[in-house]
Amino acid sequence: MTASYQAMEISRPGQLELVERPVPVPDAGEVLIRVEACGICGADRSDIENADPAARRVPGHEVVGRLMTRGSDVPDTWQVGQRVGVGRFGGHCGSCRECRRGRFHLCRQQPVMGSSRDGGYAEMMTARATGLVAIPEELSSEEAAPILCAGIATFNGLRASGAEPGDTVAILGIGGLGHMALQYARRMGFRVIALGRGQDFASDALELGAHRYIDILRESAAHVLSDLGGAAAILSTITASDAVAAVLPGLAPGGRLVLLGVGQDPLAVLPGFLVGGERAIAGSITGSPFENERTLDFSVLTGVRPRIETVPLKDANKAYQRMLSGEVKFRMVLTMGESTDADQ
Which domains, ranges and CATH numbers included, belong to the chain? Predict the structure, then answer.
């Protein structure tokens, strides 16, 4: 093992710097991972733009790599050489109220990768064993990385929507999250309606699984959905609360709006609209490592794959700026040099 590794530190808000660091030794209950791929997620923006430069934090929370070293008290489930992943939440504590109820992803004592703990914009990374995810052989590391956040967020959001096969489900926002949601929704047996701004992503949305694309700049999505009998669920991946409110009237009685995007403005909704039609609004946030493995397995079984652009670690600044530009179709993934094709 080498004595040092390369990492992208946040040198100042919005700026990444390539540095050399000494290889860390994992603490009890932790492992050392040699990173093979790390996705660049929209949530990284908050971590990078609002970081305390003194922390010299390494961002990244869609991490796939090989387990190199085990600390003490790591279960035998995890072995040296095994390919593992780590998502946004870096491992539950096992003792808080939410953990005792089995809701591990809602643990309030777990690290947030790339925010409160160093993430995967690096050649190596330590992580809690409770946050590890087993990666299927059928997926390359580059393919698996975005599924650990964008994948599970949309997969679990759809599962929480209450929609059943044959129901109409609308996906609002056709980007890094939305392009995964379209694929999962189609394979879950829903009638899938894609809602986006403009025509740039219309053909992509149909190719990814939408039965129909609605340009919300040209048509009233609420009217179209209502004409279809209303949506059993609307999955919102965007942060613009006004755009979300505009499509809400297209929700069928008994339907549910599931929010994945975190906006800064309040969501305007009339209580009578919810009460009179027994409609509901819910939030959904990623999931547990076990649920992440279910998402990966479903992706393998049904052929769902993220559409990615790969960039070497040294070009992380350029890749991050490209993600911010909104021009990416659909996810940026950092690679660490060597090929990480799926093991066949």
Answer: 4-151+287-335 (3.90.180.10), 161-283 (3.40.50.720)
